[in-house]
Write a structure and sequence with these properties.
The structure holds 2 protein chains of 2 kinds.
Chain A (H helix, E strand, L loop, with lengths): L20 H14 L8 H14 L3 E3 L2 E2 L2 E3 L7 E11 L9 E9 L4 H15 L2 H8 L4 H14 L4
Parallel strand pairs in A: 2-5, 3-5
Antiparallel strand pairs in A: 1-2, 4-5
Chain B lengths: L2 E8 L8 H12 L4 E5 L4 E3 L3 H5 L8 E8 L2 H13 L4 H14 L2
Antiparallel strand pairs in B: 1-4, 2-3, 2-4
Helix pairs in contact in B: 1-3
The chains are: A alpha/beta, B alpha+beta.
Chain lengths: 158, 105
């Protein structure tokens, strides 16, 4: 799976306004609504479900990266977006570091394979330090978009 | 004393080896001095790194070999196998997930 298979272009954010876990999750989910990828009527329910998932254990997986996610019946295909915080946000990460890169995923309840392959793609690409660094330095959503495309094109990911 | 041991495991999780069990696995693996690797058909990854474990994208039914080498290899292998055998204590957590989804309007 590639980034272009699930990242909603119009929902990418290069500067998040929030400084809290809930804030950034809400901001990213709202961006998905604005991009027409999830229904506005489901926004609260999706934000609540993602926060509930965070309560079970942080998705701040280290290296300044978090992958907040949930399953939700409002989507029939995996949808996600990317956001960058220059300041970094406390996300109770596994390594204690603030999180700068966020990949938010909403997947259909009955298709765990899609979610796994998105996680695979994200984690595979993030092993590349240069990719992480360049994402964090992105000045505009278009920069992020280009970096994701470049990663997709390098990828040997199926 | 250095030891090298290995065991086959099967992913029994309905959702596959997703973020939460990958985190549990990496946390457990980091408690041990031994090198702990998971081997699938196509790759070999460091069990102490959640990022590496996630790149396996191991779905339900995937067969993996856990290979452990080092001074505490036997105990470490047993601990890792125990996680797979217990299905990463997934049942109650899945119930919370499902409840969260169903009860939200």
């Amino acid at each position: 799976m590639k980034f272009s298979d699930f990242v909603a272009t119009g929902a990418i954010r290069s500067h998040v306004d929030s400084s809290t876990k809930e804030g950034v999750i809400r901001e990213m989910a709202t961006a998905l609504v604005e991009a027409g990828r999830i229904p506005a009527s489901d926004l609260e329910s999706i934000v609540k479900a993602i926060l509930k998932r965070e309560d079970l254990g942080t998705t701040g997986i280290g290296r300044g990266v978090a992958v907040p996610h949930t399953k939700h019946p409002s989507v029939d295909k995996l949808v996600g977006t990317v956001a960058v915080s220059q300041e970094g946000i406390d996300f109770d990460s596994l390594d204690g570091d603030p999180v700068h890169l966020f990949f938010l995923l909403v997947s259909p309840p009955d298709q765990p394979g899609q979610h796994l392959r998105a996680l695979e793609n994200i984690s595979r690409q993030l092993r590349d330090d240069a990719f992480c660094r360049e994402l964090k330095a992105a000045k505009a959503p278009a920069d992020i978009q280009h970096l994701l495309e470049a990663a997709d094109n390098h990828g040997m990911v199926s | 004393m250095q030891q090298a041991v290995s065991r086959d495991v099967v992913v029994g999780l309905k959702q596959g080896l997703h973020a939460r069990p990958a985190d549990m696995l990496a946390r457990e693996a980091r408690k041990w001095q031994s090198r702990i690797e998971l081997v699938s058909k196509s790759q070999r990854v460091d069990g102490k790194s959640i990022l590496e474990v996630l790149t396996l994208a191991a779905e339900e039914g995937t067969r993996l070999v856990v290979e452990v080498a080092g001074p505490d290899a036997t105990e470490a292998l047993a601990a890792i196998v125990r996680l797979f055998d217990s299905n990463f204590h997934e049942n109650e957590e899945t119930a919370v997930d499902t409840a969260g989804r169903i009860t939200t309007p």
